[in-house]
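Two proteins, back to back. First:
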Amino acid sequence: MTTTDPRVRYEIRAATRADKAEILELARFLDSVNLPNDEATIEEILEHSEQSFTGEIGDPRRRNYVFVLRDLEQKRAVGTSMVIAQLGRKDAPYIYFDVHVEERYSATLDKHFAHQVLSIGYSYNGPTEIGGLVVHPAVRRSPERLGMLISYVRFLWIAQHRDDFQDRVLAELLPPLEPDGTSHLWESVGRHFTGLTYREADRLSKRNKEFIRGLFPDGDIYASLLRPEAQDVIGKVGPQTRGVEKLLRRIGFRYWNRVDPFDGGPHFIAQTDEVLLVQRTRGARLLRGTTDPLPGAKALIAREHDVAPHFHAVPSHFQLAPEGAGQVVLPEETCRHLGLRPGDEIALLPLD
């Protein structure tokens, strides 16, 4: 089967402050620490992202990148995702609960118990985090697999800038929450130690984590002392992120026996160099564009620029050129959209 790309409908690019209104609309579907439904915070996040793509933020570990997926026909953003270069610094530690089992036995009573225990931890040199993944509900089941595209682009970026990222990559998934956003773990633990609601603590932790270290207990917390509904969410994946869990497991992530200290959401981890998508990303040069049909293979094709928005990527058919190693032939429409000329460098991530 051969085909060609008559036009480019969807593109992924680096987000800019001009995208604030559309990113804010997407944030309403997630409203997380990484992507809150708050106009002022979104503006700060986008400014930080712009300065990360330009290199204005000199320390790579302090850079955060936001990508936006746009429907060019509808002229609107339909997805977004993020890469946080490093979790955990002296001014903002990475905070978590390690989850382990402690066994107890009494010979006198001949009774054995296995207790789930939560142990708070702090890291000042944590992993890279992928997050902020949102796909507009109207396109979540589109045949173009838009959720996959906006998720995959993060790994392409990491692969192309490998030295700027940590040796491990973390993904924190949402646990089951109540329809009003209530976290049963927070109601059973965090609220008793801080006096804050889940949303208040979630928002505050984005700017200042001192209150967690100052108010949370240093010792172990036995989950068996919590309400059953709180125990039930620890390390569980909520229905809204089960598709993400499936994708993560397929490309090399695993549950880390570690959870978010606010809501119990599971942390998934992978060695960066062992992530399938990082391994499959390659650099190449454009040999030529063509209007001829190409084989059915498709890839995410990306190019970086010296001017804003500094990064573009589109899904496109491609063909490795037999004329020379590391060269590809692309549809002429893809070349026009990305502004490519023969010899230009691209990044290529084959799609499943």
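And the second protein:
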Amino acid sequence: MSDTATKTKTCAACAYWDSSNGSEGNCRRSSPQTVVFEVSSEKKLTTVFPVTASSDWCGEYKEK
């Protein structure tokens, strides 16, 4: 598939994408990723799905 053809299949049209505000959303193709952060010298963990723009694209697009 050419780059032009791939780019037309954006996150906004993908079955794996969950829109949060129309221009951004979460890619739910894979399980959420663990993120480690520090708050007042204490390490915390959370899990998040990758945030993507509606115009982003990848090689694993699946039509809705």
